[in-house]
Design brief:
Oligomer: single chain
Family: Belongs to the PrpD family.
Number of strands: 8
Structural class: alpha+beta
CATH architecture of the largest domain: Orthogonal Bundle
Helix content: 40-55%
CATH superfamily of the largest domain: 2-methylcitrate dehydratase PrpD
Distance between the termini: 48 Å
Protein name: MmgE/PrpD family protein
CATH topology of the largest domain: 2-methylcitrate dehydratase PrpD
Shape: globular
Number of helices: 23
InterPro entries: MmgE/PrpD_sf, MmgE/PrpD_sf_1, MmgE/PrpD_sf_2, MmgE_PrpD, MmgE_PrpD_C, MmgE_PrpD_N
Pfam families: MmgE_PrpD_C, MmgE_PrpD_N
Number of domains: 2
Organism: Eggerthella guodeyinii
Length: 454
Amino acid sequence: MSVRKTENLLDAVIGKAVSLVDNTWDDAIRDAALSCLLDYVGVTLAGSAFLKKRHETFLDKVGPCDGSYPIIGMHRTADAYTAALLNGLSSHVLELDDGHRYGMLHPGAPIITGLLSSSRIDPLDSEHFLKAIAAGYEAMITLGRMIQPEHKKRGFHATATCGSFGVAIAISILRRYPPKRLRSAASAALTASGGLLAMGDGESQLKPYNCAQAVVSGITAANIALCEYGSPVDAIGEKRGFILSFNGGLDSCCIEDALRDGCYILGVFKKVYASCRHIHPAIEAALAIRSEPDFDLKAIASIVIETYDLAISGHDHSVAGNASSAKMSIPLSVSIALCTGESGIEAFRDDVLQSQQVRMLASKVKVVENKDLSLLVPKKRSAIVTVNLASLSIAKRVDYPKGEPENPLAPEELRCKFIDLLGYAGRSCQEAEKLFENVSSLEANMSEFLKGIE
């Protein structure tokens, strides 16, 4: 539904982010920001290990990229933009970074990458750093809620299109920009917005680049604002602004809901399965079926997966030539879970993807829309998996997969995820535990934390 805009939406979103850190800030929000930082560090260090050869190729072929900004996990430094680009890739490549169900985006990967890429020119006070994280999340998720689900239906990747905005706001808060400069940074970020969901289709491995370019654009926007350029009145809501350009209309319900609700960092989900979040309900249901005493992998005749409409487009292919494509596939992710009982990074190894057993099982999967489940989105993003055996059928439904606010990771589960990811990154258990403690007690160990992620 298109409506006439009656308020300055850019000022409203900025006002929400500023108010969060100036007026609403409390221990719960602080703890949520710290938890997001912990999750980011583990995911990005593991992502850097996964991309090590490609990062080295980039540095060797594109150089010189001299500078003092750390490339996370590489024990190398580069100029700010190169470090931001490579760290942005690392943060999103494993499909394990945090996200928000209503915004349909991943805030931590671009926002925290952008903030860490400001660490060499901005003295970092730990409390203010966490406030900047929360402010970036608030701005990015608010913008995402204003435009979803229409934005996704049009083929845009909100992690990218809203990510540059979130990064610019977060850095502006970190640097304590005055209002006019903050608006300039936000506006510059909005005009740099872009990112296509097609980057995750077929055999493409460019989806993480959507996140990386959002980081670079957000940093550039925050930097150009230092030159005191004037900005438009409302780059979000005016006639030639962000929403009308990307979505074709202003939806009053989406906008009102986005501005009414708040403290969005408290509603972030954290992943335990290394695949697209839309697939997680089906994976979790499959793992539950696998644990049933009557389950017999060899007796599977067919599998029917009912889910919501937005989860199907781009995710119903049953053949994939690489891990990136497999992580976007409901049939393959579910088949791997049923065959191996695994769904983490190692579950998508080449030998698993090439397994005849996995391929045969994926060919037996049918993914269909359940209109009742579609109506529940975004309050619930559900899946019903039915495995038909020779003599019986086993069905499981999942509404809130592990990691959602309604089914959160316990502190010990978050710690185990962190330790496991650092093990994948080649860190010893002792090194992982030390870094976990440094992040957990950030106010006393900010410098040690920064050294630990290099």
